[in-house]
Amino acid sequence: MKKQNFFILLIPLLIVSNCIVSNSATEEEPYFTLHLLVPNTQESRTPYVNSIVEELAIIGIEVQIHDVGYGEIGPRTWAYPFLDYSYIPVYEDGGYDLLYVGWYWDLDLALTGLFDTASFTPFGDNHYQYSNTNYDNILNSYVVEQNPTQRSNYAHQLQSYIYDDLPAIALYYNESLMAARNEVSGMTEDLLFYCDHRAENWDNSVDHVIKYGITHFSYYYNIFRAESYFTTLWTQPTYGSLFQRNINTYYWEPVIASGYTISPDKLSVTVDIDPNAKFSDGSPVLAEDVKYSYQLHMTPEVGSMDYFTLTSMFGDNASIEIIDPSTVKFTYTSITNFPLKYLSYGIVDKSVVEPAITAHTYAIFDEIPLTGNVQDTLVRSCGPFVLNSFNAGTSIKLVPNPYWNNLTSSGGINAKLDELYFIRESNLTTALSELVSDGFDVLDPIHPTAILTYEDLEGLVGISGIQKKEPKHEELSINMKHPIIGTGELTPNGTIEAAKCIRKAISHCIQRQTLIDDLFDGVGSPGVTPVPEMCLGYDSSLTPYVYDLSLAETYLEQAGYGIEITPTPTDTEKTTYAGFGIFVTMIFGLSFIRFIIRNKR
Q1: What count of other Cβ atoms lies within 10 Å of the Cβ of residue 328?
Q2: What's the CA gap between 78 and 568, in Å, rounded?
Q3: Distances (CA, A) of 284 to 276, 401, 570
Q4: Residue 448 to residues 380, 426, 445, 468, Cα–Cα distance (Å)
Q5: What is the tens place of the pLDDT at every residue in 300-329?
Q6: Bond prior to 530 in cis (omega within 30° of 0)
Q7: CB 310 within 8 A of CB 358
Q8: Rounded mean pLDDT of 538-564?
Q9: Alpha-carbon distance 238 to 223, whole Å?
Q10: How far apart are CA 545 and CA 495, in angstroms?
Q11: What is the 3-state secondary structure (H, E, C) of 392-436?
């Protein structure tokens, strides 16, 4: 009887001790596994992605990373071939689960084609397969609303849906670092990305000269061929336009125009030209100059980079009418919510350009300005500056237009600078030396060999770093047809709401500001929605999802996953627990042997 009781006591103790060893040495199984596509075009994304994956593992979500090119990403997302499915399926079936991607945006917020139901792939870029009837209805109102206040109201409502539904989890907004001497002012650096800068406000308190260092040189010679960022840096302040962006609000405001009216049907804009507007030779800017400038853009032989944009907006040249010498009317092919955006193209002097084309053909558009047949024909300015010299491959010099102060919009003053240079230096180290020695006053943030950081500027006396916001964001795209994170049908609760809870849990696992500080030298800002901060209509009342694993756990529990976050045992702790189990086993094993020996006696 004693022997039998002993075995009854020994067996559970052995089981308990072995269980202690087993549970301490084996991590919990994840609740589900997701596949994340990451473009292999930017190595800087790798540590960011790894951090997210590590945090998700803590709450029980396993993520497998696939570093691939767009040749594989495209057919799994916005270019999915729809051979076996009528929708984009999960990764294992040829589609995707999660996608790390970045988007560039226009400052004039355009949301059509991205999250609306009508833009499901392949009809648009809605590879998320997000569909919300309320969102669609508000978007339909937004795209035809021209009143700035109501338009922003609609934009805020649209962002609130994306913020709560999370078809895309915003990670961060991109910024870049530029450098300038402390005496430089009025740069409006946030408008530089799209070259909507107002250089007439730039100044250098020491000598009223700015030498702007760039790393590439423009080989495009006029506004019709301005196909690069570095070209538009100098063409923007040279070519005057009817409207330009206000430096504070980013809304379009009259410049060469003195006023405008929009027709009741929202399809036409009639523009009055400032009677004091003049080209740099003193000749007036007339309605025929405006119409002719647009006519050139919409003439295929010119080869304008804006040909397709303007022909889609206006159809053909007949849609632009001269009402009188100082009034011109534009009729659009359809209603657009930012009509003044398309009235911001540079104006040329018809009286000199038309004869030059007749004499020398459209070949003048490919000639270096101030040379040959073209001379100043295509760069005669009604903007705040005039092209003074063009040294191909090295430098460009601008000087003030003496008639700019005639404009009502100029406030009666000319450009503040006496000279504005754009000078090429592709080597960042050399460019920084030029900045220190006063060879440069400003250093552009775009560099082919290295990215400018605050560390580069340490110890440079009189030099400041300026963070330039960019209309770009980085995100995790969600496949809204995924049965766990999209439709929720395979979650324990089996509901759409459960899937939304999982998406929120994922968003709360991202250390946005910490990663920006650690990986990007603090240059960037936490993402809220896919809409970047500088876009017109950005909703500043929304805040980033905070990093909070406990809150993430709560959302997973609401989806039916009852996990508990506990610290992962250290190797020492695991050894201790395992040693304890072995110790218990050994003690009872020895006791058992002694018991047998004793009974044999």
Answers
A1: 26
A2: 39
A3: 7, 13, 80
A4: 32, 7, 10, 17
A5: 999 999 999 999 999 988 999 999 999 999
A6: no
A7: no
A8: 93
A9: 9
A10: 22
A11: CCCEEEEEECCCHHHCCCCCCCCCCCCEEEEEECCCHHHHHHHHH
